[in-house]
Amino acid sequence: MVDVTVAAVGAAILAATSLRTAQQKGRKAMRLPEVLAYPQDDSPIRIGTVHVHCVDMAPRYQSEQFTIQVKYGTGDTCLRCDAATFSPVLPAWIAVSRSNHRRAPVASSVLNSTCMFLLSRTIERIQPVIQLKIRSAGLRKRLVAKATITLLDLLRQSEVELPLHDSSGESLGRVIISGNTQLVNQEDLRGALALAQAVKQRDTYLIPDSAFTVLGTVVDENSDSSDGVDCQMGSPW
């Protein structure tokens, strides 16, 4: 009886270990840096890019330091990109004349950061949702504001203005983003990322200050030919 119990426990532990290993492999398969570093084959992959143009916040946040993170997915099943650290500033005319009766000022920061995610080869289900979270840049990293949009809604528009709200629902400003998806050859993507001096993160690649244009190859999914079509890949903004 003891031997049977030990064998059963051993089998359960082995099964749990195998499940964790499979889940870890699944999580790895979602990460673009690992797929490009350790390719299983040379088949095309689908990527998604989210370009954060700028952030406008309430004047009381001027000169404070924040970070902005872009997440693809929800909950624990998501991919994260640390897009930028920034300090919004008030426009120059505020300092010149505070009696000027223009529209209410906002503290702004131009970011031009592009996050690149892997959309294909995911084993675990990822909800097609884009989340943006602004946190204080201190040790506590307090959540200040957030915005959310579905990937489909983002792709339907060339540029999207999203309201920023705090946890109570108060409006704190806006963030302007755009995005696209492409099916690309892996080798071309490696070259494009190197040319754009992309920063490799755990889940994604970040292209900072990316008012850039790089050449890549997009695969035509409706074509019988294996040849790609040369185009501008990266930030069309």
Task: Give a description of the structure.
This protein has 237 residues and is of the alpha+beta class. Helix content is 23%, strand content 40%. The protein contains five helices and twelve strands. The chain has helices spanning 2-29, 32-37, 92-96, 151-155, 186-195, and strands spanning 45-57, 66-74, 77-86, 107-118, 129-136, 143-150, 160-165, 171-184, 199-200, 205-207, 214-218, 229-233. The strands form three sheets. Strands 7-8-1-4-10-9 form a six-stranded antiparallel β-sheet. The longest helix has 28 residues, at 2-29. The protein is elongated. The protein starts with a helix and ends with a strand. The model is unreliable at 4-29 and 212-237 (pLDDT under 50).
Strand content: 35-45%
Number of DSSP E strands: 12
Strand order of the largest sheet: 7-8-1-4-10-9
- Put simply, the count of helices is 5
Please provide the ordered H/E string of secondary-structure elements. Answer: HHEEEHEEEHEEHEEEE
Q: Indicate the mean pLDDT.
A: 78
Major sheet characteristics: 6 strands, antiparallel
| Unreliable runs | 4-29, 212-237
| Structure classification | alpha+beta
- What gap, in angstroms, lies between the N and C termini? 69 Å
The radius of gyration over CA amounts to 22 Å
Helix amount, in percent?
Answer: 10-25%
What is the 3D shape? elongated
